[in-house]
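Late entry, evening session. Most of the bench is empty. Finally got around to the prediction I had been postponing all week. Sequence below, unchanged from the version circulated by S.P.
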Amino acid sequence: MLEDLDDKKLINRSNEFKPSVTLNGETKSGFAWLLEFYPELTQARVRADRIRDNKPASRLRVRLRKENWEQLSSIWEQFSRRYMLQFERSGASLEQIAAEVLRDPALYIRQKPSQVQQRLVSNEDNGRFEVAQREGELAASEFMAGMKYGHFLKQLALRTSLPVNVLHPVLMAMLRDVLHGDSRYLSEISLDNMTRALQARINAHFAQRHDYLPLDFQASTSVFDSTARQFREEISAEIVGKNVDENAIDDPRSLYQIPPLRYDSVDPELSLLKYDYPQQVSVFGKLPKRAIQIPKYTGGSTTPDFVYRIERQDADSVYLLVETKAENMRVGDQVILDAQRKFFDMLRRQNINVEFAEATSAPAVFSTINGLIEGKVN
Protein backbone atom coordinates (compact mmCIF):
# COMPACT_ATOMS: atom_id res chain seq x y z
CA MET A 1 0.00 0.00 0.00
CA LEU A 2 2.80 2.42 0.88
CA GLU A 3 4.41 2.02 -2.55
CA ASP A 4 1.05 2.53 -4.25
CA LEU A 5 0.41 5.74 -2.31
CA ASP A 6 3.90 6.96 -3.18
CA ASP A 7 3.38 6.14 -6.86
CA LYS A 8 0.15 8.12 -6.83
CA LYS A 9 2.02 10.98 -5.07
CA LEU A 10 -0.49 11.05 -2.21
CA ILE A 11 2.21 11.11 0.50
CA ASN A 12 5.56 12.82 0.97
CA ARG A 13 8.84 11.21 2.01
CA SER A 14 7.81 11.36 5.68
CA ASN A 15 4.70 9.31 4.85
CA GLU A 16 2.50 12.33 5.60
CA PHE A 17 -0.50 12.93 3.36
CA LYS A 18 -0.14 15.87 1.01
CA PRO A 19 -2.68 18.64 1.58
CA SER A 20 -3.55 18.91 -2.12
CA VAL A 21 -3.29 16.30 -4.88
CA THR A 22 -4.79 16.63 -8.38
CA LEU A 23 -5.73 13.45 -10.24
CA ASN A 24 -7.73 13.37 -13.46
CA GLY A 25 -8.50 17.05 -13.08
CA GLU A 26 -9.94 16.66 -9.56
CA THR A 27 -8.18 18.07 -6.48
CA LYS A 28 -8.44 16.51 -3.02
CA SER A 29 -6.23 15.96 -0.02
CA GLY A 30 -4.01 12.89 -0.05
CA PHE A 31 -6.06 11.40 2.77
CA ALA A 32 -9.33 11.87 0.84
CA TRP A 33 -7.80 10.07 -2.18
CA LEU A 34 -6.71 7.22 0.15
CA LEU A 35 -10.30 6.64 1.25
CA GLU A 36 -11.44 6.65 -2.37
CA PHE A 37 -8.84 4.12 -3.52
CA TYR A 38 -9.23 1.95 -0.41
CA PRO A 39 -12.91 2.15 0.66
CA GLU A 40 -12.45 -0.86 2.96
CA LEU A 41 -10.65 1.46 5.39
CA THR A 42 -13.98 3.12 6.22
CA GLN A 43 -15.82 -0.12 6.88
CA ALA A 44 -16.26 -0.63 10.63
CA ARG A 45 -15.45 -4.06 12.00
CA VAL A 46 -16.20 -5.53 15.40
CA ARG A 47 -13.90 -8.03 17.06
CA ALA A 48 -15.57 -11.39 17.53
CA ASP A 49 -14.91 -11.40 21.28
CA ARG A 50 -16.72 -8.07 21.61
CA ILE A 51 -20.07 -9.35 20.35
CA ARG A 52 -22.50 -10.26 23.09
CA ASP A 53 -26.00 -11.60 22.79
CA ASN A 54 -27.55 -9.60 25.60
CA LYS A 55 -31.19 -8.71 25.97
CA PRO A 56 -31.94 -5.00 26.41
CA ALA A 57 -31.50 -4.19 30.11
CA SER A 58 -34.74 -2.20 30.09
CA ARG A 59 -36.68 -5.47 29.61
CA LEU A 60 -34.89 -7.33 32.38
CA ARG A 61 -36.20 -7.30 35.93
CA VAL A 62 -34.51 -7.79 39.29
CA ARG A 63 -36.42 -9.36 42.18
CA LEU A 64 -36.05 -7.73 45.58
CA ARG A 65 -35.37 -9.68 48.74
CA LYS A 66 -38.38 -8.26 50.51
CA GLU A 67 -37.35 -9.54 53.95
CA ASN A 68 -34.13 -7.51 53.73
CA TRP A 69 -35.81 -4.37 52.42
CA GLU A 70 -38.28 -4.64 55.31
CA GLN A 71 -35.33 -4.14 57.67
CA LEU A 72 -35.02 -0.69 56.08
CA SER A 73 -38.73 0.15 56.35
CA SER A 74 -38.44 2.51 59.32
CA ILE A 75 -35.79 4.65 57.66
CA TRP A 76 -37.66 4.50 54.34
CA GLU A 77 -40.60 6.26 55.92
CA GLN A 78 -38.30 9.28 56.05
CA PHE A 79 -36.70 8.70 52.65
CA SER A 80 -40.06 8.53 50.87
CA ARG A 81 -41.22 11.88 52.27
CA ARG A 82 -40.98 14.86 49.95
CA TYR A 83 -38.71 17.75 50.87
CA MET A 84 -38.60 21.39 49.87
CA LEU A 85 -35.39 23.33 49.44
CA GLN A 86 -35.16 26.35 51.71
CA PHE A 87 -32.51 28.95 50.84
CA GLU A 88 -30.89 31.27 53.34
CA ARG A 89 -31.00 34.95 52.50
CA SER A 90 -27.59 36.24 51.54
CA GLY A 91 -26.04 39.62 50.93
CA ALA A 92 -24.30 38.38 47.81
CA SER A 93 -26.60 38.56 44.79
CA LEU A 94 -26.28 36.78 41.45
CA GLU A 95 -25.26 40.14 39.95
CA GLN A 96 -22.35 40.38 42.38
CA ILE A 97 -21.25 36.82 41.69
CA ALA A 98 -21.40 37.34 37.91
CA ALA A 99 -19.47 40.60 38.20
CA GLU A 100 -16.70 39.09 40.34
CA VAL A 101 -16.27 36.11 38.02
CA LEU A 102 -16.57 37.77 34.60
CA ARG A 103 -14.19 40.61 35.47
CA ASP A 104 -11.29 38.15 35.41
CA PRO A 105 -9.34 38.86 32.16
CA ALA A 106 -7.76 35.39 32.28
CA LEU A 107 -11.10 33.88 31.21
CA TYR A 108 -11.02 35.65 27.85
CA ILE A 109 -8.94 33.80 25.25
CA ARG A 110 -8.52 34.42 21.53
CA GLN A 111 -8.47 31.19 19.57
CA LYS A 112 -6.26 30.10 16.68
CA PRO A 113 -7.39 27.65 14.02
CA SER A 114 -6.11 24.10 14.41
CA GLN A 115 -4.75 21.66 11.88
CA VAL A 116 -4.94 17.88 11.76
CA GLN A 117 -1.74 16.15 10.66
CA GLN A 118 -2.27 12.67 9.21
CA ARG A 119 0.43 10.10 8.57
CA LEU A 120 0.42 6.52 7.33
CA VAL A 121 2.26 4.21 9.74
CA SER A 122 2.93 0.48 9.80
CA ASN A 123 1.61 -1.57 12.73
CA GLU A 124 4.46 -3.88 13.79
CA ASP A 125 2.07 -6.31 15.51
CA ASN A 126 -0.10 -7.19 12.53
CA GLY A 127 1.86 -5.74 9.59
CA ARG A 128 -1.04 -3.51 8.54
CA PHE A 129 -0.88 0.16 7.63
CA GLU A 130 -2.88 2.53 9.80
CA VAL A 131 -3.64 6.23 9.71
CA ALA A 132 -2.25 8.15 12.70
CA GLN A 133 -3.20 11.75 13.32
CA ARG A 134 -2.54 14.58 15.73
CA GLU A 135 -4.06 18.00 16.14
CA GLY A 136 -2.41 21.31 16.93
CA GLU A 137 -2.56 25.05 16.35
CA LEU A 138 -1.43 26.51 13.06
CA ALA A 139 1.85 28.15 14.00
CA ALA A 140 1.73 31.24 11.81
CA SER A 141 -1.95 32.08 11.63
CA GLU A 142 -4.29 34.86 12.65
CA PHE A 143 -6.72 34.54 15.52
CA MET A 144 -10.14 33.23 14.58
CA ALA A 145 -13.14 35.53 14.48
CA GLY A 146 -15.20 35.40 17.64
CA MET A 147 -18.91 34.69 17.97
CA LYS A 148 -21.46 37.40 17.50
CA TYR A 149 -22.07 39.09 20.83
CA GLY A 150 -25.75 38.17 21.03
CA HIS A 151 -25.05 34.50 20.30
CA PHE A 152 -22.21 34.36 22.85
CA LEU A 153 -24.40 35.96 25.52
CA LYS A 154 -27.29 33.58 24.79
CA GLN A 155 -25.03 30.50 25.02
CA LEU A 156 -23.55 31.68 28.32
CA ALA A 157 -27.04 32.22 29.74
CA LEU A 158 -28.18 28.77 28.59
CA ARG A 159 -25.14 26.98 30.01
CA THR A 160 -25.22 28.71 33.40
CA SER A 161 -29.01 29.23 33.81
CA LEU A 162 -28.28 32.87 34.69
CA PRO A 163 -30.56 35.61 33.29
CA VAL A 164 -29.28 37.62 30.34
CA ASN A 165 -29.84 40.87 32.27
CA VAL A 166 -27.40 39.61 34.93
CA LEU A 167 -24.65 38.68 32.47
CA HIS A 168 -24.98 41.44 29.86
CA PRO A 169 -23.80 44.52 31.84
CA VAL A 170 -20.59 42.87 33.03
CA LEU A 171 -19.78 41.15 29.74
CA MET A 172 -20.39 44.32 27.71
CA ALA A 173 -18.27 46.41 30.10
CA MET A 174 -15.37 43.93 29.84
CA LEU A 175 -15.55 43.83 26.05
CA ARG A 176 -15.73 47.61 25.77
CA ASP A 177 -13.38 48.82 28.50
CA VAL A 178 -10.82 46.02 28.99
CA LEU A 179 -10.72 44.10 25.72
CA HIS A 180 -10.95 47.25 23.57
CA GLY A 181 -13.90 45.94 21.60
CA ASP A 182 -11.95 42.95 20.24
CA SER A 183 -14.72 40.43 19.52
CA ARG A 184 -12.14 37.70 18.87
CA TYR A 185 -12.17 37.18 22.65
CA LEU A 186 -15.73 35.85 22.31
CA SER A 187 -14.37 32.40 21.49
CA GLU A 188 -15.49 28.87 22.36
CA ILE A 189 -12.58 28.65 24.82
CA SER A 190 -13.74 31.83 26.58
CA LEU A 191 -17.28 30.46 26.74
CA ASP A 192 -16.07 27.22 28.34
CA ASN A 193 -13.89 29.13 30.82
CA MET A 194 -16.73 31.40 31.92
CA THR A 195 -19.21 28.53 32.22
CA ARG A 196 -16.91 26.52 34.49
CA ALA A 197 -15.99 29.52 36.64
CA LEU A 198 -19.58 30.68 37.09
CA GLN A 199 -20.90 27.20 37.88
CA ALA A 200 -18.16 26.58 40.44
CA ARG A 201 -18.77 29.94 42.15
CA ILE A 202 -22.56 29.61 42.22
CA ASN A 203 -22.38 26.04 43.51
CA ALA A 204 -19.97 27.04 46.26
CA HIS A 205 -22.26 29.92 47.22
CA PHE A 206 -25.51 27.95 47.46
CA ALA A 207 -23.99 24.73 48.85
CA GLN A 208 -23.70 26.34 52.29
CA ARG A 209 -26.93 28.36 52.13
CA HIS A 210 -29.73 25.85 51.75
CA ASP A 211 -31.51 23.26 53.87
CA TYR A 212 -34.31 20.73 53.53
CA LEU A 213 -37.81 21.30 54.85
CA PRO A 214 -39.89 18.07 55.17
CA LEU A 215 -43.41 18.18 53.72
CA ASP A 216 -46.43 16.31 55.06
CA PHE A 217 -46.76 13.74 52.29
CA GLN A 218 -44.92 10.85 50.72
CA ALA A 219 -44.27 9.98 47.09
CA SER A 220 -43.48 6.72 45.34
CA THR A 221 -39.92 6.04 44.22
CA SER A 222 -38.32 3.40 42.04
CA VAL A 223 -38.28 0.92 44.93
CA PHE A 224 -41.14 2.03 47.21
CA ASP A 225 -44.90 2.27 46.56
CA SER A 226 -46.15 5.04 48.83
CA THR A 227 -49.83 4.24 48.14
CA ALA A 228 -49.49 0.63 49.30
CA ARG A 229 -46.78 1.70 51.78
CA GLN A 230 -44.57 -1.22 50.84
CA PHE A 231 -41.52 -2.08 48.76
CA ARG A 232 -42.00 -3.31 45.22
CA GLU A 233 -41.63 -6.97 44.24
CA GLU A 234 -39.25 -6.28 41.35
CA ILE A 235 -37.68 -3.36 39.50
CA SER A 236 -35.93 -2.70 36.20
CA ALA A 237 -32.44 -4.22 36.11
CA GLU A 238 -31.09 -1.16 34.30
CA ILE A 239 -31.58 1.16 37.28
CA VAL A 240 -29.59 -1.18 39.53
CA GLY A 241 -26.56 -1.62 37.26
CA LYS A 242 -25.65 -1.93 33.60
CA ASN A 243 -23.02 -4.67 34.08
CA VAL A 244 -23.55 -8.26 35.21
CA ASP A 245 -21.48 -10.77 37.17
CA GLU A 246 -23.03 -14.22 36.69
CA ASN A 247 -20.51 -15.94 38.98
CA ALA A 248 -21.08 -13.92 42.14
CA ILE A 249 -21.56 -15.85 45.37
CA ASP A 250 -24.96 -15.23 46.92
CA ASP A 251 -25.11 -13.43 50.26
CA PRO A 252 -28.44 -13.75 52.11
CA ARG A 253 -28.00 -10.18 53.40
CA SER A 254 -28.09 -8.72 49.89
CA LEU A 255 -30.99 -6.51 48.78
CA TYR A 256 -31.52 -8.54 45.61
CA GLN A 257 -31.67 -12.16 44.57
CA ILE A 258 -28.21 -13.21 43.31
CA PRO A 259 -26.95 -14.27 40.81
CA PRO A 260 -26.72 -12.30 38.67
CA LEU A 261 -25.01 -9.46 40.49
CA ARG A 262 -25.60 -6.08 38.83
CA TYR A 263 -23.18 -3.15 39.11
CA ASP A 264 -21.99 -0.07 37.20
CA SER A 265 -18.27 0.22 38.04
CA VAL A 266 -15.65 -2.37 38.95
CA ASP A 267 -13.92 -0.04 41.39
CA PRO A 268 -15.27 0.42 43.95
CA GLU A 269 -18.82 -0.89 43.32
CA LEU A 270 -18.05 -4.51 42.47
CA SER A 271 -15.57 -4.77 45.35
CA LEU A 272 -18.19 -3.46 47.78
CA LEU A 273 -20.87 -5.84 46.52
CA LYS A 274 -18.67 -8.97 46.70
CA TYR A 275 -17.08 -8.25 50.09
CA ASP A 276 -17.74 -10.62 53.02
CA TYR A 277 -18.90 -8.10 55.63
CA PRO A 278 -18.84 -8.66 59.41
CA GLN A 279 -21.94 -10.28 60.88
CA GLN A 280 -22.98 -6.92 62.37
CA VAL A 281 -23.92 -5.82 58.84
CA SER A 282 -27.43 -7.28 58.60
CA VAL A 283 -28.39 -5.78 55.20
CA PHE A 284 -26.40 -4.18 52.40
CA GLY A 285 -26.67 -3.44 48.73
CA LYS A 286 -26.62 -1.01 45.84
CA LEU A 287 -29.50 1.42 45.68
CA PRO A 288 -31.35 1.71 42.37
CA LYS A 289 -31.58 5.07 40.66
CA ARG A 290 -34.34 7.35 42.00
CA ALA A 291 -34.71 5.23 45.17
CA ILE A 292 -34.64 8.26 47.50
CA GLN A 293 -34.66 11.35 45.24
CA ILE A 294 -32.87 13.98 47.32
CA PRO A 295 -33.48 17.41 45.70
CA LYS A 296 -30.38 19.20 44.38
CA TYR A 297 -30.15 22.97 44.59
CA THR A 298 -29.19 23.02 40.90
CA GLY A 299 -32.36 21.12 39.96
CA GLY A 300 -33.15 17.42 39.68
CA SER A 301 -32.50 14.86 42.39
CA THR A 302 -29.86 12.40 43.57
CA THR A 303 -29.72 9.02 45.34
CA PRO A 304 -26.68 7.57 47.18
CA ASP A 305 -25.04 4.46 45.75
CA PHE A 306 -25.12 2.08 48.75
CA VAL A 307 -27.02 1.43 51.95
CA TYR A 308 -25.98 -0.65 55.00
CA ARG A 309 -27.85 -1.56 58.16
CA ILE A 310 -25.36 -2.08 60.99
CA GLU A 311 -26.27 -3.71 64.32
CA ARG A 312 -24.56 -2.42 67.45
CA GLN A 313 -24.48 -4.23 70.80
CA ASP A 314 -25.13 -1.29 73.11
CA ALA A 315 -27.08 0.99 70.78
CA ASP A 316 -29.80 1.03 68.15
CA SER A 317 -29.12 -0.02 64.59
CA VAL A 318 -27.50 2.61 62.40
CA TYR A 319 -28.04 3.09 58.67
CA LEU A 320 -25.02 4.01 56.57
CA LEU A 321 -25.53 5.65 53.16
CA VAL A 322 -22.50 5.78 50.87
CA GLU A 323 -21.84 7.82 47.74
CA THR A 324 -18.88 6.59 45.67
CA LYS A 325 -16.94 9.03 43.48
CA ALA A 326 -13.74 9.13 41.48
CA GLU A 327 -10.84 11.08 42.98
CA ASN A 328 -10.91 13.61 40.11
CA MET A 329 -14.45 14.81 40.75
CA ARG A 330 -16.33 17.10 38.39
CA VAL A 331 -18.29 20.16 39.52
CA GLY A 332 -21.53 18.18 39.23
CA ASP A 333 -20.15 15.48 41.53
CA GLN A 334 -19.50 18.04 44.25
CA VAL A 335 -23.08 19.29 43.97
CA ILE A 336 -24.33 15.72 44.54
CA LEU A 337 -22.13 15.27 47.61
CA ASP A 338 -23.17 18.64 49.06
CA ALA A 339 -26.87 17.81 48.61
CA GLN A 340 -26.60 14.35 50.16
CA ARG A 341 -24.50 15.54 53.09
CA LYS A 342 -26.99 18.33 53.86
CA PHE A 343 -29.94 15.95 53.59
CA PHE A 344 -28.58 13.35 55.98
CA ASP A 345 -27.38 16.03 58.41
CA MET A 346 -31.00 17.23 58.52
CA LEU A 347 -32.21 13.70 59.36
CA ARG A 348 -29.60 13.34 62.09
CA ARG A 349 -30.84 16.56 63.70
CA GLN A 350 -34.21 14.78 63.96
CA ASN A 351 -32.51 11.99 65.98
CA ILE A 352 -32.65 9.50 63.13
CA ASN A 353 -29.79 6.99 63.23
CA VAL A 354 -28.36 7.64 59.80
CA GLU A 355 -24.76 8.23 58.76
CA PHE A 356 -23.39 9.42 55.43
CA ALA A 357 -19.98 8.77 53.90
CA GLU A 358 -18.36 9.60 50.60
CA ALA A 359 -15.73 7.18 49.32
CA THR A 360 -13.32 6.85 46.41
CA SER A 361 -12.25 3.32 47.35
CA ALA A 362 -13.68 0.16 48.90
CA PRO A 363 -11.24 0.15 51.88
CA ALA A 364 -12.54 3.58 52.92
CA VAL A 365 -16.06 2.12 53.20
CA PHE A 366 -14.82 -0.93 55.13
CA SER A 367 -13.07 1.38 57.59
CA THR A 368 -16.22 3.46 58.09
CA ILE A 369 -18.30 0.33 58.75
CA ASN A 370 -15.80 -0.98 61.31
CA GLY A 371 -15.83 2.39 63.04
CA LEU A 372 -19.63 2.38 63.30
CA ILE A 373 -19.59 -1.17 64.69
CA GLU A 374 -17.19 0.06 67.39
CA GLY A 375 -19.55 2.92 68.22
CA LYS A 376 -17.77 5.74 66.40
CA VAL A 377 -19.76 8.42 64.59
CA ASN A 378 -18.76 10.14 61.34
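Two things to note before I forget:
Confidence is low (pLDDT under 50) at residues 44-53.
Residues 57-88+216-373 form one domain.
Will write this up properly tomorrow.
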